[in-house]
Amino acid sequence: MAAGTVDEKRIQAAVRRLPVLPDRKAELNRAVTGLLYVIQSAAPKDDDGSPPEQPEQGPAQEVDEERLVAAKELRETQWLFHDLKEEWAKLSVTARDALSKRVRAAGMSIAEPDDLIDRLAQVAESMAAAADDLEQPDRPVPAAAAPKAEDPPLLIAQHAARMYTRLTGKKPPKPKPKDENPRGPFFWLLEDVFAAAGILASADQYAKIVARGRPGG
Questions:
Q1: Quick one: which of 43, 68, 69 has its CA closest to 54?
Q2: Which residues contact 110 (CB under 8 A, 6 or more apart)?
Q3: Could you tell me if 167 and 26 are in contact, meaning their C-beta atoms sit under 8 angstroms apart?
Q4: For the chain, which terminal residue's Cβ has fewer other Cβ atoms within 10 angstroms, N or C?
Q5: Rounded to an integer, what distance in angstroms lies between the CA atom of residue 46 and that of residue 40?
Q6: 77 vs 108, which has greater pLDDT?
Q7: In the chain, what's the furthest Cα-to-Cα distance?
C-alpha cells in the first residue's frame, strides 16, 4: 500500500452504491470521510517520515443537529435512570416487601423488582455509548481494540464492516459451509476500497475474517 495513491472518487462511489437505509442517507458524506481517515491513518509514512495528509473534511464537518439532539436526549434519560437507582436504594424494607408482594400478585415476569432495576442500569450504560455513536459515528477504533499496525488491511476492513452495518442495517455475510465467501454489496465495497487504496491484499480473505469476527479467521 503506497502513501498518496488513494482514489477518493472510487471510494465515494463504492459507499454510495450500498443499499443504504432511508434514514441513513444523510450520513453518506460522513461515512466516506471516516473511511478515508482510517485508510490514510493505516497507510505507511511518506519517504520523508511524515504521515500522509488527512482527507479534507468538507461537508462531513457540518453539524447534524438531529443527531446531536438525540444524543442529548439519551444522556438526559441516562441520568434519570441513575436518579431512579439512587432513590430505589433508599427504599425501606417495608416498602420493598409491599412492592414485591404486588409484583407477584400481578404475575409479572420479573423475579424481583431489584432484577428490573439492574437491567435498567445496564440499559443506561448503553445509552451513554449510543450517544457517543450519534455524536461521533465515524470515530476511529480505540487503540486498545485496534488490530496491530502491521496489518493495515485488517484495520480498514473492520472499519468498512462497521460502516456497512450502520448504513445498511445488515452484518457482512458469513462464509458458506464450503468456505466460499458470498459475493454481494459488502464484498464489492471491500474490493473497491482495497483497489482504490492501492492495497495488495485479498478482499475475499479479509471479508471472511471480519464476517467471522476474529482476526485469526
A1: 43
A2: 103, 116
A3: no
A4: C
A5: 11
A6: 77
A7: 75
pLDDT digits (tens, 9 = 90+) for 25-73: 888 988 999 899 888 887 655 445 454 454 444 444 444 678 878 878 8
Q: Which three cell numbers stand for residue 176?
A: 458458506
Give the model confidence (pLDDT) of 161-184 as tens digits.
999 999 999 888 887 766 566 678
Report the predicted TM-score, pTM, of the whole model to 2 decimal places: 0.52
Report the alpha-carbon distance of residue 139 to residue 177 in Å, rounded.
Answer: 34
**What is the DSSP-derived secondary structure letter of residue 20?**
-
Q: Which amino acid is at 159?
A: H
d(CA 183, CA 75): 40
Share the mean pLDDT of the chain: 76
Distance CA 189, CA 191 (A): 5
Residue 193 to residue 160: CA distance in whole angstroms? 9
Evaluated on CA atoms 28, 29, 34, 36, the torsion sign reads positive
CA 131 – CA 137 distance, rounded (Å): 9
d(CA 210, CA 172): 8
Task: Give dist(CA 213, CA 217) in Å, integer.
Answer: 8
